[in-house]
Design brief:
By secondary structure, this protein is an all-alpha fold. It is 75% helix and 0% strand. The structure holds protoporphyrin IX containing FE.
Length: 131
C-alpha cells in the first residue's frame, strides 16, 4: 500500500517539510513559494494530511479541515505550466532524497502529475471565463 511505502504519517510529514524547506531555499521555486503565506505552517499541515488520505492512509485532512477538491482550492492562483512544473520539480527532487523504494518514487511522481495537471487546467478554465 502506498501509505506504507511512504513511511506512513511520519514519512509523509517528513516529505512535506523537506518539500517546503526546498521550495523556500531555491530560486527556481520562488514563484510558487511566494504564492504561499509567510507563515506556511498550516500549508505544510494541510498538504501532509491530504497526502496521507490520498495515499490510502487515514483521512487526516478531512478530519481537521473538512472536504476538499484539489483543483477548486487552487482555482484563484496563477498556476500555468511553469508553476505546475516548479511544484512537480520541487517535489521530484524532494522525493529523490527520501528513503523510499526506487519504484515507489517514480510511481508517486507519475501519480502526482495527475492532480497537478488538473490544477493547471482548472486555472486555465477560470481565466478563459473571465477574459
Ligand atoms: C500545480 C502546482 C501547485 C501549486 C503551484 C500549488 C500551490 C499551492 C498554494 C500556493 C497553496 C496555498 C494557498 C493559500 O494558502 O491561499 C496550496 C494549497 C494546497 N495545495 Fe497546492 N499547489 C499545487 C499542486 C498541488 C497538488 C498536486 C496537491 C495535491 C496532491 C496540492 C495540495 C494542496 C493542499 C491540500 C492545499 C491546502 C488547501 C486548503 O486547505 O486551502 N497542491 N497549493
Amino acid at each position: 500500500m502506498s501509505f506504507q511505502a511512504a513511511g506512513r504519517e511520519a514519512g509523509i510529514f517528513a516529505l512535506v517539510n523537506a518539500f517546503f524547506d526546498r521550495m523556500g531555499s531555491d530560486e527556481r521555486f520562488q514563484t510558487i513559494w511566494q504564492m504561499h503565506p509567510d507563515d506556511n505552517a498550516v500549508s505544510r499541515d494541510k498538504l501532509a494530511r491530504f497526502l496521507c488520505g490520498w495515499l490510502g492512509g487515514p483521512k487526516l485532512y478531512n478530519e481537521k479541515y473538512g472536504a476538499i477538491g484539489i483543483p477548486r482550492v487552487h482555482a484563484h492562483l496563477d498556476i500555468e505550466t511553469p508553476e505546475r512544473d516548479q511544484w512537480l520539480t520541487c517535489m521530484a527532487e524532494t522525493i529523490a532524497e527520501q528513503p523510499f523504494a526506487a519504484e515507489f518514487k517514480s510511481y508517486l511522481m507519475q501519480q502526482l502529475f495527475v492532480p497537478a495537471e488538473a490544477v493547471r487546467r482548472r486555472v486555465a478554465a477560470r481565466k478563459e471565463t473571465v477574459e
